[in-house]
């Protein structure tokens, strides 16, 4: 019998026929795994920092600057990273990001293998952390871009909560492992381990990932569900010639490419998507930056990230120096607030989306868990009033549960960003938010150097809960930024 051939379009239709597990959930799972590895590498110095400082001869202030190095380049690279994502899409940019940050992480383990002056070792670690920050800069904006494409508005809060909660699971999973590896084999092997962990996700991402309209596993029913609910399924497909997949784009009724159709027509639940401007010019940037909700996100995200950077830099050092825990005990103990943050993050996204489905406004649905969560951060300052390690861990667990509950900044960003500048908005928000990664480690380093105590540092960190609440007040009504014709 002659061999039967099937056209590429039919292949897409056949392979995308009603899978048991929706493809968007597999995409979210892959984002989650990648983000866990990302945050494990970002927070690796919190476990290895004391041993590295002793080995290489760093002072407390120098260690604070090493902690902050990541933040400097991460902030500066957000805008170019966002522009690259808007220009080339998430698939290729994210692949390059994963490969490069993996190499930079592994290279830290090579510093000081031979006798090296302290300042040379300091410069080498500082430079590698700068590179790590630059290479990771497109990651979270890419996550937000992918979630915007793959998830309807009423599922987006939970989806963004899943990938942002990866930071807590990273600590819960990797902190005990990194503590044990450092204790048994030395701090260098932690970076070798983390470098190896990034290889497989990079290979899976580049081979499997596609946009919703081009993915062979997506059924027409799932595509309709996403698009009718406000997912911008064609966001990357307007980048002509840049998604070089062998699969053709799906077409809407009448032969109109779904990629273009989904961007240019109004989408339910989002307030519509305005016609694409020809370029991200000065007028467009001014229009975006004049939006009140975006400035509220800037303030709240900065405050939330200050808590994050305390958690992934100085918290383990606090447990060792102020509470007298061993490195192994610290790795296990740090998992307690991390798991609390994970629970809070998943609950916050679920509650927010459930409020939307029950008819609450987008503003009420996003702000309610955010305000409750950041109010739970304020008691963090009570750690200065007790010597009980158990009570301190309880307070930390409550505070980081609240931080997770209130960390809906990425969900709000996907709600307000205009489609043509989605990654630009995400990049600027991430840049402002991660300025906390520069300020927080350095301020705490100097505070410890001057006072010799963590009390002032804990007051400094706890005050950011109040700052986050101010950000939610500034935000006003949450709505998508419209780019009206000039």
UniProtKB/TrEMBL annotation:
Q: Which GO terms describe its cellular component?
A: plasma membrane
Q: Where in the cell is it found?
A: Cell membrane
Q: Could you tell me which species this protein originates from?
A: Actinopolyspora alba
What is the protein's membrane topology class?
Multi-pass membrane protein
List the molecular function annotations (GO) for this entry: transmembrane transporter activity
InterPro entries (UniProt xref): MFS, MFS_dom, MFS_Na/Anion_cotransporter, MFS_trans_sf, Sugar_P_transporter
Give the protein name, as stated in the record: MFS transporter, ACS family, glucarate transporter
List the transmembrane segments: 25-45, 65-85, 92-112, 118-137, 158-181, 187-208, 295-319, 331-351, 371-401, 456-476
Cite the entry's keywords alphabetically. Cell membrane, Membrane, Transmembrane, Transmembrane helix
| Primary location group | membrane
**Start and end residues of each Major facilitator superfamily (MFS) profile domain:** 27-486
* Disordered as annotated region, ranges: 249-277
Keyword Cell inner membrane carried by entry? no
């Amino acid at each position: 019998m002659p061999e039967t051939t099937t056209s590429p379009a039919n292949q897409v239709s056949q392979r995308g026929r009603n899978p048991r597990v929706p493809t968007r959930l597999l995409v979210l799972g892959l984002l989650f795994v990648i983000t866990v590895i990302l945050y494990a590498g970002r927070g690796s110095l919190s476990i290895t920092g004391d041993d590295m400082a002793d080995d290489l001869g760093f002072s407390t202030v120098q260690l604070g600057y090493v902690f902050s190095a990541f933040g400097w380049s991460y902030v500066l690279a957000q805008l170019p990273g966002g522009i690259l994502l808007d220009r080339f899409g998430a698939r290729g940019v994210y692949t390059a990001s994963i490969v490069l940050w993996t190499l930079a992480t592994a290279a830290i383990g090579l510093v000081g293998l031979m006798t090296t002056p302290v300042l040379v070792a300091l410069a080498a670690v500082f430079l590698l952390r700068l590179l790590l920050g630059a290479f990771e800069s497109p990651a979270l904006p890419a996550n937000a871009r992918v979630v915007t494409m793959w998830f309807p508005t009423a599922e987006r809060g939970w989806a963004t909560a899943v990938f942002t909660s990866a930071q807590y699971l990273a600590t819960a999973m990797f902190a005990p492992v990194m503590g044990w590896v450092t204790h048994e084999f030395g701090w260098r092997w932690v970076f070798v381990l983390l470098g190896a962990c990034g290889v497989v996700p990079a290979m899976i991402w580049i081979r499997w990932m596609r946009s919703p309209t081009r993915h062979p596993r997506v059924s027409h029913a799932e595509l309709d569900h996403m698009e009718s609910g406000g997912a911008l399924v064609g966001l990357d497909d307007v980048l002509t010639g840049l998604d070089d997949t062998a699969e053709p784009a799906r077409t809407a009724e009448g032969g109109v490419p779904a990629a273009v159709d989904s961007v240019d027509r109004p989408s339910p639940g989002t307030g519509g998507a305005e016609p694409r401007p020809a370029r991200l010019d000065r007028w467009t940037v001014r229009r975006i930056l004049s939006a009140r909700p975006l400035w509220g996100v800037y303030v709240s995200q900065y405050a939330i990230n200050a808590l994050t950077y305390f958690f992934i830099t100085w918290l383990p050092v606090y447990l060792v120096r102020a509470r007298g825990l061993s490195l192994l005990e610290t790795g296990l103990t740090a998992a307690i607030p991390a798991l609390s943050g994970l629970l809070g993050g998943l609950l916050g996204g679920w509650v927010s989306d459930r409020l939307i489905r029950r008819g609450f406004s987008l503003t009420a649905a996003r702000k309610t868990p955010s305000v409750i969560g950041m109010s739970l951060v304020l008691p963090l300052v009570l750690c200065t009033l007790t010597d009980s390690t158990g009570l301190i861990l309880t307070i930390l667990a409550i505070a980081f549960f609240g931080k997770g509950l209130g960390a809906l900044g990425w969900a709000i960003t996907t709600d307000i960003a205009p489609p043509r500048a989605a990654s630009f908005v995400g990049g600027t928000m991430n840049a402002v938010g991660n300025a906390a990664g520069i300020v927080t480690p350095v301020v705490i380093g100097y505070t410890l150097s001057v006072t010799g105590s963590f009390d002032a540092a804990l007051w400094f960190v706890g005050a950011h809960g109040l700052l986050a609440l101010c950000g939610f007040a500034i935000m006003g009504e949450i709505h998508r930024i419209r780019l009206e014709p000039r």
